From TrEMBL, chains A, B:
It is a multi-pass membrane protein. Residues 9-176 form the CSC1/OSCA1-like N-terminal transmembrane domain. GO terms for cellular component: plasma membrane. Signal peptide: none annotated. It comes from Mikania micrantha. Belongs to the CSC1 (TC 1.A.17) family. This is Calcium permeable stress-gated cation channel 1.
Amino acid sequence: MATLGDIGLAAAINLITALIFLIAFAILRLQPFNDRVYFPKWYLKGLRSSPATSGAFVGKFVNLDYRSYLRFLNWMPDALKMPEPELIDHAGLDSAVYLRIYLLGLKIFIPILFATWAILVPVNWTNDWLEQSKATYSDIDKLSISNIPQSSHRFYAHVVMAYAVTFWTCFALKKEYETVTKMRLHFLQSEKRRPDQFTVLVKNVPPDADESVSEAVEHFFLVNHPDHYLTHQVVLNANKLSELVEEKKSKQNWLVYYQNKYERKQSKRPMMKTGFLGLCGEKVDAIDHHIAEIKRLSDDIAEEKENVKNSPKAIMPAAFVSFKTRWGAAVCAQTQQARNPTLWLTEWAPEPRDVYWQNLAIPYVSLTVRRLLMAVAFFFLTFFFIIPVAFVQSLANIEGLEKNASFLKPIIEIKPIKAFIQGFLPGIALKIFLILLPTILMIMSKFEGFLSISNLERRSASRYYLFNFFNVFLASVVTGTVLEQLHTFLKKSVNDIPSTIGVAIPMKATFFITYIMVDGWSGTAGEILRLKPLIIYHLKNFFLVKTEKDREEAMDAGSIGFNTGEPQIQLYFLIGLIYAVVTPLLTPFILVFFAFAYVVYRHQIINVYNQEYESSAAFWPDVHGRIVGALIISQLLLMGLLGTKGSASATPLLLALPILTLGFHKYCKGRFEPAFIRYPLQEAMMKDTLERAREPNLNLKGYLENAYLPPIFKEAESDSDDDDDDGEISDKKWAKDNVLVATKRQSRKSTPVPSKISNGSSPNLLEIQEKDKP
Amino acid sequence: MATLGDIGLAAAINLITALIFLIAFAILRLQPFNDRVYFPKWYLKGLRSSPATSGAFVGKFVNLDYRSYLRFLNWMPDALKMPEPELIDHAGLDSAVYLRIYLLGLKIFIPILFATWAILVPVNWTNDWLEQSKATYSDIDKLSISNIPQSSHRFYAHVVMAYAVTFWTCFALKKEYETVTKMRLHFLQSEKRRPDQFTVLVKNVPPDADESVSEAVEHFFLVNHPDHYLTHQVVLNANKLSELVEEKKSKQNWLVYYQNKYERKQSKRPMMKTGFLGLCGEKVDAIDHHIAEIKRLSDDIAEEKENVKNSPKAIMPAAFVSFKTRWGAAVCAQTQQARNPTLWLTEWAPEPRDVYWQNLAIPYVSLTVRRLLMAVAFFFLTFFFIIPVAFVQSLANIEGLEKNASFLKPIIEIKPIKAFIQGFLPGIALKIFLILLPTILMIMSKFEGFLSISNLERRSASRYYLFNFFNVFLASVVTGTVLEQLHTFLKKSVNDIPSTIGVAIPMKATFFITYIMVDGWSGTAGEILRLKPLIIYHLKNFFLVKTEKDREEAMDAGSIGFNTGEPQIQLYFLIGLIYAVVTPLLTPFILVFFAFAYVVYRHQIINVYNQEYESSAAFWPDVHGRIVGALIISQLLLMGLLGTKGSASATPLLLALPILTLGFHKYCKGRFEPAFIRYPLQEAMMKDTLERAREPNLNLKGYLENAYLPPIFKEAESDSDDDDDDGEISDKKWAKDNVLVATKRQSRKSTPVPSKISNGSSPNLLEIQEKDKP
């Protein structure tokens, strides 16, 4: 049992770690040669170009202005300065609402902190139950519910506090849901014209012997939406083309690498082997070889493009159908079209950036099977992942290694290597698995057939949360692997599960406090340092970058990463709500996390992340639902805990709480969720009418015609030199439409805005905002 | 433990009971004076009038044709003769599809019977486990799974059979869902023009300071559905009017009663007391008193009608909005209208007959609270209903009665009365509760705020099924009240629940066989006798009937009673599926029930029941879902049972079954359910186009204008004599519209179709069908 002193020490260590990270960040970010790592967002928005102000050569790479180092924490107030409406304008609604999750954490836990410390800490402290019991205990336990004697009347204080916590949390949740809903509707309302407002994605177009998919779509919608149908675009299977373009890109990178190498050392032309990984095969001149390869691929790409455009096999039974009005699209997206509900399925088209093109052609039956398979797979992944990991570990121990690969024996027997392997190997399989987990979950979601990246991320997030709940939270509370727990719980009574876990809860408080400090505090500080992108950028910069455009591409802005970030926050909500009443001492640690993470992520969103898509905060129902879930779990565990404390009269009083919370959830679901799924006709009609009044002669058809062309066509286009103007789809047009579709970011790339580095702070936001306004 | 002989005896007893019922029915139905009890459907359709053929006075009441008695079972083939399309035409799709539930039972269980008797019975019989164990056992147990030794390999036969049962059931379910979906779509497609095809119910119209509800509705829909909106009708709160009309009707009945009495015995004017229940108060001339009362009520009704029409308080924030096309209505019903998803809620208007008028004005928040309250109430009703019942029972014992009502003591002490009370009282509270249960559940559904009668019945049915599952099925298997079980199960492990129940399953086979015979066989035979309507009709006929119209009203055709009938069938599905593999002997009893009930209910639907509304088989997803649920329960219980039989390797093989079944359910939900909830635009467009081609000059507005007037207005109208033509809503019009809205039944009332009683069978159906065709 840790004492308050131990925790203080741990806190100090973690604070120092975090501080070191922050100082490292402060120093690194001030160096001009790191500018593209720490301010990529501004480069992408075209508001900042490569630093060339200082004049001196050294000044290009190292910041020599000592004053800027003194104000190394200045980024914090800077990050908080930008007002929310400007943040939405700058980074999109998704990012702005994502930050509100941290704010919600603060809103929920600050009042809880005051209430519990004012009431529960004295109630817990003024007992001598632990002293009497003569068990080993620490000061923390004296502050927790453990210090209350069996069947004491003081438990009523905890019951009342549980009610207070529930009501306050629900109140805060409702307020927040309301705000986010308003923000979303306002965002959708004030938005500029976007292709997805007029477009519906139609899947499962039935095959027709007499008509092509394109004709079938046109006829169907001309008949069934005669007044509203405008145009459509069939979905093309461009997966092979996409592979070829990828390959060409990689070859081009290598070409640049070898050319750079040759430039630096003109004496010798670089050579390479053509075989596997460059380890075997014929030796050829690397530059010539790559030029030839690129030529070959360019031809292949041109051919494949022709192929995709003309072959009926490449046309998938899906189409993006555009309407004359938003009203028409809203109607089509929300209604059933055909008699057979598995044909002519319609849904809102995601933003063009957000479409996950590969999944557009999965038939209905296959979808059901895929979902079922993935549900089963996820169950096994959650509860049995430890089996293959343990198997790999058993292979990877010293004895196993010596036995299976006896030729390695002489090397392994060397002492320092042996020690290293013994210390390192057993853990590595698990570590690798945990690092790969988000990717595995993402692949599972992709396999399930979701059609937009935002949807994929939401699905992965909910699975990642469940995994964490069982394998991080439960596995920490009830020590032992989840598999063992599953076994135990199946043998236990339904009634006993909450009390088994509930009893273990107060004992694990110190563990979770440490967890919050390591994962929450130091982890968040590590996030701001961006060590991985930093290294990768400099490697690329050294080997591949020749032109300013290459440097642009070497920059990896990254994104929020909803699928890993949100489940982590949710874990803190869960821990915070569970311990709010049980061990009030834990709440401040949670609060520090929320406050610190809020500042850090606000900074990152303003300066670093470049959100790939805009889902208009479509994830909020998930966030809300998981917090409500955490609330209910906390109530059940408290019931279980009080049940074992012999407080027979206090426990039934808690019974109403989960029921009320469920009722609250149902209410919110009905009241707010539709705003995240549907698009009200009133809204659509209003925008239509306004637009018609403002631009009566708008050529909508031209605007929408090629909005939903797979991006790979555009990419293939910009890379290839041999244009074919005779194709049905004019390539010139794509490029033009691309400008219309994309946000204004690219078009401003060359605006000369002075770098603000010499200020030793992030760019002057208000000034830029001023310029950014239309 | 019952032997085969015991069961044979029980079967004989029940068969004889059923036979007695059938003979009584055969005799009673042939008597002309019972004609309106046993053939009300034909009277309501106007295809049969009161018997007046025989001429002789006696012949009017008693059938003297002895030959007709010989063919007393002729109704059975007659009932089966009518082909399904004509049945749909005659009684509606709801009734026809309801009968298919019984057919589905036959389809599922006949192949199961053959398979299990061919394979499992020999496998079970050729063991001597029960003989070896020397426990008491019966022949039935020798045929069941109990006779297989522990950890025998023979259990694989049961596992294979469980797979076969699952696949067959799923296959039959899918086929049936497909058929019913087709029938529904065909029915909707081939239907005549009906107001509900064009109409959407709009709820939660927001209050507006400047506009009345009617104006607000008109403006909103003119703006947001400019091309499709036609007209609307606000919902009026006519609950008080309805009460007055009810009261008037009752007084009129009494008036007729006293007039009849006076006519029979002219010597003395009937007198009555005005006080409570006619027991106290002033003595007055009954006829004069009632005439005065009716006059007063007529005035009140006229006044209240004025009130409802003109007072803004009587106007509810809801309206029936009609559109120019089915397409427009389909669009409006399936989309969200306003920003705030709790305002301007739209849904398909139910058929005018199906509307439950009282619930039309419940606001959104109140609905959430009501649902939550009812969920909690239903939980307590299911698990704790025994507490108040036991309390009433404890009050109602002799000692309690003597103590609480000591003035009754002298009476109670009389021996025969005491014996009667002692034998009768303890059970009576429970009996009354069980009789009242469907009514209680119906009141709960009404409180929840459902808007159509069909919806109310579906909700009640699902609750009734749950109640039966816990209190009839589980309580019979695991002896003891559900409350005790709940306690036991909460203390048990999750894993143990299926095995606890599973082990008890084979032992309860004889109990359920008896249950099927008593409840299923004799109960169904009792249904055809219609004892209650018979008695009530003759009482009314004697006291109240003066004119032919009165007789018409005295007739109580009744309806299928989906809310009580369907849960009962589902219980048989559950028992049948559970015992299919465990005790194959039970299956034939289930089959006899399904076959017999099919014939009986087919007869009743053709000759008796008068369905109040037509939901176009909207209940099928519920039926399907509950059978799938029963299948999963049967799989879990078999797993539990095999688990205790030491067949460790056979049990995991079953694990895939519930998962596959769930997958099947999901598939069906996606594939078929939308046809029961939405109306495809393709369909709507097709009907619109056809109609426009056929009747280009149709005055749709006139047709729809008053279709959704509360029925009470029409009733109040037809009863009152003092018309007011200055009202906004022309009363004449209602009457006219009424003809259009209602089915053709009333209009044909006077068609002279000869009674077919002298044939000693139900009317010649084909002949009547011929005439019934347009």
